[in-house]
Specification:
Helix content: 40-55%
Number of strands: 18
Number of helices: 19
Number of domains: 2
Strand content: 15-25%
CATH architecture of the largest domain: 3-Layer(aba) Sandwich
Radius of gyration: 26 Å
CATH class of the largest domain: Alpha Beta
Structural class: alpha/beta
Bound molecules: nicotinamide-adenine-dinucleotide
Largest sheet: 7 strands, mixed
CATH superfamily of the largest domain: Aldehyde Dehydrogenase, Chain A, domain 1
Distance between the termini: 67 Å
CATH topology of the largest domain: Aldehyde Dehydrogenase, Chain A, domain 1
Strand order of the largest sheet: 12-13-14-11-10-15-16
């Protein structure tokens, strides 16, 4: 397809549309300067990183890189501002969060355009990031007061002992995020951290730093204090290691391999972390599945964001009874997708983000084909559309010796498998070491929810690939097994950023024998009391 004209506040139009059939975009230098000026870095003291758009490889910006000293500076500033922030009321924080919510919706064109330029994704996928950030802001603005409220628990001696459980902010939270959902993954985990009274130092992926910087700018525009949310920029370990050395808690989203390295660094410092990692997510299409609906869900499940989505479907187990019909419809719907490297709404699937991603996806498909897998549709790069474009690809006949059988592809490639009985399908879906997301298509919702309990996955969606669970902010989201540690969203998503503090107040008798009572008599009295409390059914 040919690219359309860019528009919006960021761009100065195609550079040479007559000579280049693909679009070419540029960001206004002032706009870029305002964003890159937010990186905590000493101006001119270190090299910059050139960000290029995956749409056409055109340079977008030169982002200053933070040194370890810059990271320390950011941490010291965060610590100072956090002290005052922890004394603000949750109601005041909620007001700012709702202003941020409105600002994100108001500025959605600017955000989606920047996300498209930096990540190469389809505009509809970029809009989902806007929606998810707004939903997260609203959810925590409206619920944090109840999540964080001091809770009274029954005391040791009823009537004499009072115990209050407080939620104290951890302090400075580090957020390390990947490139695939650059707006939502840079922001959403940090919003509850702010609501809980913490400061944030964020380290986004080098390929998508501009989007993360725009997020930081919007937070400040919404009224959050300067320095409460800072962004450090640079390559993974170079910036990540000094960051982890100075924070009180880490939220990491990225690959399982990096997650394991980072977990060790956190363990060394005895700080907590939540890890949102990779997956090889299965979809089960049962014999009674609504086939057309399953085929539609399969397309979204496998090819949203060009498959560069941690909760996307890379394995589909389809019942014998519906296999042929399902494959027919799934392949037809896949072939009907509008492909294009463009910031237009009409595009269904955008490009992969980098040469590295293209190589990884190509290698998985070539390996599978060389070992006997069949390509039902797709199976090749599309340099005519963009430098890193790869077609949505459906494979059949994938076997355990092929790389794409059990390893995450993180691209638009899905393998189809036939099954005869459900127990076998569940066992195969549970193979491997991941456990992030799963999907079940069936006409019997109750059966789907029963099967969910047997699936080793942190989220399971019935008659939907991933949106129902992930899009429900009250529902905890995260991975079992090597897909992660801890949960984002819901109550767990905010309480992870707090220390629990129990405050006991003793009235009347102290917790020792009263004057004149021997230790032996006290022990007897205690025994009688304990038996009585048990008889009364007290916890
Ligand atoms: P990655 O692990 O290579 O990088 C993620 C982030 O970690 C980047 O910001 C990177 O700069 C940083 N990093 C890398 N090495 C580091 C180190 N040693 N110390 C500190 N920081 C370091 O991940 P990726 O390949 O870029 O992203 C894709 C992966 O992320 C996929 O596996 C995908 O499934 C996963 N992911 C998971 C979720 C989830 O919610 N579970 C969401 C999105 C992506």
């Amino acid at each position: 397809m040919t690219a359309s004209s860019p528009r919006g506040p960021l761009t100065d139009g195609p550079r040479d549309p007559e000579h280049d059939p693909r679009a070419s975009w540029a960001l206004e230098p002032d706009y870029v300067g305002r964003l890159t000026g937010r990186v905590v870095a000493t101006p001119g003291a270190q090299p910059t990183h050139e960000v290029r758009s995956p749409l056409d490889e055109a340079p977008l910006a030169h982002v200053p890189q933070s040194t370890p000293q810059d990271v320390e500076r950011a941490l010291a500033r965060a610590r100072r501002v956090q002290e005052a922030w922890s004394r603000t009321s949750v109601a005041e924080r909620s007001r700012m969060m709702l202003r941020f919510h409105d600002l994100v919706l108001d500025r959605q064109d600017e955000i989606t355009e920047l996300v498209c330029l930096e990540s190469g994704k389809a505009r509809k996928d970029a809009f989902l990031e806007v929606a998810h950030v707004a939903m997260t802001a609203r959810y925590y603005a409206r619920t944090s007061a109840s999540h964080l409220a001091t809770r009274r628990v029954p005391g040791m001696f009823p009537g004499l002992t009072r115990v209050d459980v407080n939620r104290i902010p951890k302090g400075v939270v580090g957020i390390i995020s990947p490139w695939n959902y650059p707006f939502t993954l840079a922001l959403c985990d940090g919003l509850p951290a702010l609501m809980a009274g913490n400061a944030v130092v964020a380290k986004p992926d080098s390929q998508t730093t501009l989007t993360a910087l725009l997020g930081a700018q919007l937070l400040e525009e919404a009224g959050f204090p300067a320095d409460l949310w800072q962004v450090v920029a640079g390559q993974g370990a170079e910036v990540g290691t000094p960051l982890i050395a100075g924070i009180d808690y880490l939220c990491f989203t990225g690959s399982t391999a990096t997650g394991k390295v980072i977990a060790q660094q956190c363990a060394e410092r005895l700080i907590g972390c939540s890890l949102e990692l990779g997956g090889k997510n299965p979809m089960l299409v049962l014999r009674d599945a609504p086939v057309e609906r399953a085929a539609e869900g399969a397309v979204r499940g496998a090819f949203s964001n060009s498959g560069q989505l941690c909760i996307s479907m890379e394995r589909m187990y389809v019942a014998d009874q519906v296999y042929d019909r399902f494959v027919d419809r799934f392949v037809a719907r896949t072939q009907a997708l509008a492909l294009g490297a463009s910031t237009d709404w009409e595009v269904d699937m955008g490009t992969l983000i980098s040469a590295r991603q293209l190589e990884a996806v190509t290698a998985h498909v070539e390996d599978a084909v060389a070992k006997g897998a069949r390509v039902l549709t797709g199976g090749k790069a599309r340099p005519d559309l963009g430098p890193y474009y790869y077609e949505p690809t459906v494979l059949e006949g994938v076997t355990p010796d092929m790389a794409c059988f059990g390893t995450e592809t993180f691209g638009p490639v899905v393998s189809l498998y036939r099954f005869h009985d459900e127990a076998d399908a569940v066992a195969r879906a549970n193979q491997g070491s991941y456990g992030l997301n799963a999907s079940v298509y069936t006409s019997d919702g109750t059966r789907g929810r029963e099967l969910a309990r047997q699936l080793k996955a942190g989220t399971v969606n019935v008659n939907e690939p991933y949106g129902a669970a992930f899009g429900t902010l009250a529902a905890p989201m995260g991975g079992m097994r090597e897909s992660g540690l801890g949960r984002r969203q819901g109550q767990e998503g905010i309480l992870r950023y707090t220390e629990t503090q129990s405050v006991g107040t003793q009235r009347g008798l102290p917790i020792r024998p009263p004057a004149g009572m021997s230790e032996e008599a006290y022990a007897k009295m205690m025994t009688v009391s304990l038996r009585l409390l048990n008889k009364l059914g007290r916890a």
